[in-house]
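Sample entry (365 residues):
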Amino acid sequence: MSAFIHSIQTAVPQYSYHQSELRDRMKEIVPGSERDERIIHHIYSRSGINTRYSVVNDFRKTASHQLFFNGQGASPGTASRNDTYIREGRKLFVDVAQKLIDQSEFSPEEITHLITVSCTGFYAPGPDYDIIKTLGLSPKTERYHLGFMGCYAAIPALKMANQICRADPEANVMVVSVELCTLHFQANPKMDDLLSASVFADGGAGAIVSSREPDHSAYQMDGFASAITDKGKDDMAWSIGDTGFNMVLSNYIPDLLEEGLQPFLNPILEQYNLTLEDIGLWGVHPGGRAILDKVEKTFSLPKNALSASRNILSNYGNMSSATVLFVLKELLDQKSDAENNRTLAMAFGPGLTLESALMTKFSGS
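Predicted structure, serialized as tokens:
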């Protein structure tokens, strides 16, 4: 029995920033030499990003500065950052969940399972509770949370939803991912912090997964693959510090991914008797422009194969785990000449961990 992604919805917070605006502001905010300013200018100008969103407007000179730059320094404590996550994050979780109900054929009482995903904050009772209470889901809804996994976490969430639906044909699973990465901004010229500040953003996305046969554009989930590379444990990591969460983000990550991509994909392609040429749609997590360049080069992809990923990177930046769902929604919304399209979703995170989902996009009956 197959499980299907019926609906994908997204949401972003109210404050938007142009990348050039952030570039110039960072050169003012981050203490350092003229060389550091040139590095910032270079990183931001080559990021492939035009716009990013945040739940705070503190990165503007004329902002309210409720969290950052409020006279108490540019490094608020972890508690105050997490308080902002609780206040603003629950809004996005509920917003995405409400959109999923409003834009699908499922009623709140039909949702049997709820999976929430986030690595940028914590609270309990958590976003699952907020969604159930606000949308009127059954109090018997089974709830699961995938926390602190990083940018790849939406794919394990879809995998869990797929397994639930295959085990219970009556199950309807809601998956909601929200990440508020900008709350963990660190104002110092350390390269890890400069790189993370140049790409990460805030946003939320979700999906409804069910074994019910859809009569509209949807994804059929065919298979999943997971791997951890031999190298990279120390090049991408996520830990909790006294002044927010600390990201290790090495500029070697694109090269490390390049080494592990081919052996990672071969097993799932062989399992389904496919070649790279059989993949019609690529839903690659846009961790950064260089990562997309490496994926394109490694697999010798056509010029526009990663256009959805590059568009999401340009318009939203890297929203950690929510980002690959933004990409999959863009692919799902696109008109296609082919009735069925093999789709490969890929995401990467701390470890280095690689996750993929093989799906088939179809127009429905």
